[in-house]
Amino acid sequence: MGASGPRSVSTDERGFPRYWDEERETLDPGKREGLILERIQHQLAYVYAELPFYRRHYDAHGFHPAQVRSVEDFTTKVPVITKKMLIADQAEYPPYGSYARDLKAGEIARIHGSSGTSGTPTMYAVSKADWDRAGDVHAMAQWCAGIRPDDIVQVGFPFGLFFGGWGVVQGAERIGATLFPLAITESERHLELMARLGSTVFSATPSYCIHLLSVAEKLGIDLPGNTVRRLLVGGEPGGALPNTRKVIEEGWGATAADCGSTSEMYPFQTSVACTEGTGTHLYIDEVFTEVVEADDLNAPVPARARGAVVYTHLWRDSQPMIRFAPGDETYLDTETCRCGRTYPRMPEGVLGRLDDMLVIRGANVFPSAVETALRSVPELGPEFRILVRRVGAMDEMTVQTELGPAAAPGSESEAARRAEDALKRVLQIRVPVELLAPGTIPETTFKARRVVDERPKS
Amino acid sequence: MGASGPRSVSTDERGFPRYWDEERETLDPGKREGLILERIQHQLAYVYAELPFYRRHYDAHGFHPAQVRSVEDFTTKVPVITKKMLIADQAEYPPYGSYARDLKAGEIARIHGSSGTSGTPTMYAVSKADWDRAGDVHAMAQWCAGIRPDDIVQVGFPFGLFFGGWGVVQGAERIGATLFPLAITESERHLELMARLGSTVFSATPSYCIHLLSVAEKLGIDLPGNTVRRLLVGGEPGGALPNTRKVIEEGWGATAADCGSTSEMYPFQTSVACTEGTGTHLYIDEVFTEVVEADDLNAPVPARARGAVVYTHLWRDSQPMIRFAPGDETYLDTETCRCGRTYPRMPEGVLGRLDDMLVIRGANVFPSAVETALRSVPELGPEFRILVRRVGAMDEMTVQTELGPAAAPGSESEAARRAEDALKRVLQIRVPVELLAPGTIPETTFKARRVVDERPKS
Q1: Looking at the structure, do residues A184 and A102 belong to the same domain, yes or no?
Q2: How many CB atoms lie within 10 A of CB B443?
Q3: Does a structural domain hold residue B110?
Q4: Residues of B in contact with A160 (CB under 8 A)
Q5: Residue B447: which pLDDT band, with cuts at 50, 70 and 90?
Q6: Rounded CA gap, A67 and A60, in Å?
Q7: B6 CA to centre of own chain
Q8: Which residue has the higher pLDDT, A183 or B118?
Q9: Could you tell me which residues come within 8 angstroms of residue A417 by beta carbon, excluding any fewer than 6 positions away?
Q10: Same-domain status, A171 and A314
Q11: What CATH number is given to the structural domain containing B416?
């Protein structure tokens, strides 16, 4: 698999193969379901036999892999696993948890992690076979997002514990594109070198893409006039929300492809926005993806109904997730896309985390969307919080933030006005913004809880 | 070459192949010289025919590739190139200079850069063929430094514009070791996860290795008792200087291998300290390395005499350096090493940049060594400067630095004393330290000029 390239008979308008793996990506959905069932049964037998975490969990729920004879059985009978369970198991069985295969020295390709709210990061170990397979999957996803061997892919993700940027590098490398990775902190340099080198693709979080719009404006750089034609965004929800995407696409003069995922499922990047603009394809023969009732994770919802996402690694063996429920919300469209791929789509990507969603005057508000908006205002510092109060029968919210080091002293009211405008643009509702003295809001780590809930406990 | 592994008949005490490429690494030096000459002639003909920068330079000096019939001819007749010339050429012929091959879209694997003093970074483009070859070279060098497929290699270099960390990743990946890359800023996390995951190799700058000694002390972590057995250090001179190496090796309870290079020669990592502790091997059949008179770069010096380093890419085609003089100082030992490799060695690595060296009371002082010392004192901030004054007939120096955010207010004199102790340990001479108010010394970029020379101009 290591040196594989595209396998596609069809070609696109530039003469490149149209698909990374035409047979696989355009397969009849019924046939694909048969393959998925085989892999589901294989993975269930494997994790029950080899990984103590799963055996204990399934035994406790009276579930046995032999009960699964159809994909429907899988959804309705297999108990989910959650982040909380993984954290507890990894604390008890360090360093990778008893849901990880017992990996010998020399079997692991990569170790990564994600910051926990407790300060102890969750660790991910990827076997060499899994890492190699994931490289091919990532290339397939990036190909779907329009990346080709003659692209210069500039990467603006951080390269550290966090998995994201490393996967982008691995996928683009497998495609044979030119890679130009640059630290996320170097915003002016990103823009300057993008122009100098003629980068054609930029990959970062939606927030960072929005932030760079402001930096470009400050520097007088004409972003729509530059060579970037495609943005690969991910690492947080929002990149597929129509409002956010519109801000990004118009500001950059480029199309944006959302590639949201979670560290638990990474480096298997299997959700990627189609170049047709029809939403985010799900490579369900690699990571099987279900949408179920938020309050009953064994009850599927129909196509186009909102629900909770549940993911399953069909091929990973080092630390496989079987019915992992990250708490994300989305809805599916199962009609065949114009691009010819027969995978289901999330028309608006991952909408946000169910736990975090607020309902304000009838509008669903995700803290990530508030962040997206605030990041477009260069005068603001990095910290903010969302205060939610009960006013009569309604919930109301206020956003508190601070001036950043780039702001002129005394520019609070101007910055607050710009923040309110940005929030209106992204959230479609008007939200008051209070500017606090710099340093008032405590500094946060990578994944912060931004919401201060002052509503009476029910 | 892509999927190659070690080619070695001999094995080491653990049953691994002793060499990455036994035939190549243990070749008779006379035979190797013949191969080197062939490649020198090939590269000279190539750059003269294809790269305008070289043709202009050689024509201006009345040099023609046909004049080189021996390795001695090469050293004595080919004019050197310098950083200054490369910067001027790249400014005139952006983005990669007329010393770069005209690379088409899809031919470049990686773009990296190094920060210039002017603020405009120098850009490096590595063709796909060069990147692939460099991966094998890097694996060969790391294998020489003792890295094996069962190692967990934790990387503490920044991953951005700077090339260094990416090469470490590529080499270790080719060996098949486990990679754990982590951002340089996360010092406590580095130490915590090193212990949790059982990392066996740590790779960073010498300064950062010394900095982590202080962090470990503060946290009460027993570094010599942990699993790290080998340090791969580079990115700045000093890692092979006996004093600095002693501080690092004793503090970590691990052996340190210096792998100094320059961005211009990268990703061809061809200088790497031997596990035998005999110095830094130079893979001169990949990057031909000469030591010449500092004031006549066409005059070779004998073995063990100090001089200026001159490098030549024998295989790179994308942006080849032919007799590149970075201004570094070193000396060579040409005796065959105990490890069996027949390459010459730099017994103390690169000693520093000739331009930067100070002579204080008879001692050669490199600013990098001052930095190495100061980095071991956790109370200090990141900035410092070295004031050099004429006192009678002698040069004297004072180091100015500041308290960092971690320091208790009022702890200036204690911090100054600790800084003076650290300088004495590394430089072997006593140097007074002045603590300035935080914020006094202007912030510097990646490669700072630390020396303030107050001596009368002669």
Answers
A1: yes
A2: 9
A3: yes
A4: 159, 181-183, 186
A5: very low
A6: 15
A7: 24
A8: A183
A9: none
A10: yes
A11: 3.30.300.30
- For residues A263 and A391, state if they share a domain: no
ipTM metric: 0.84
**B306 and B246, same structural domain?**
yes
Average pLDDT over residues B257-285: 89
Do A277 and A196 belong together in one domain? yes
In a domain, A458, yes or no: no
pLDDT digits (tens, 9 = 90+) for B302-312: 999 999 999 99
Asked whether the beta carbons of residue B152 and residue A108 sit closer than 8 angstroms, the reply is yes
> Measured between CB atoms, which of A166, A183, A197 is closest to B95?
A197
Average pLDDT over residues B374-394: 83
Output the pTM of the full model.
0.85
Asked if B213 and B240 sit in the same domain, the reply is: yes
**Structural domain containing residue A310:** 1-353
From the list B121, B178, B189, the residue facing A108 with the nearest CB is B178
Nearest to A176 among B106, B161, B189 (CB): B106
H helices present in A163-285, as ranges: 164-175, 187-197, 206-219, 242-252
For chain B, say whether A359 makes contact (Cβ under 8 Å): no
Alpha-carbon span A199 to A125, nearest angstrom:
32
Q: Read off the pLDDT of residues A160-177 as tens digits, 9 standing for 90 and up.
A: 888 888 999 999 999 999
Task: Identify whether residues B122 and B158 lie together within a single domain.
Answer: yes
Encode burial over A66-88: b for 16+ CB neighbours within 10 A, e otherwise.
eebeebeebbebbbbbebebbbe
B85 with B61: CB under 8 angstroms?
Answer: no
Residue A96: inside a domain: yes
Q: Could you tell me which residue, A438 or A53, shows the higher pLDDT?
A: A53
Which CATH number fits the domain that encloses residue A304?
3.40.50.12780
State phi, psi for A39 to the nearest 5 degrees.
-70, -35
Number of domain units in chain B: 2
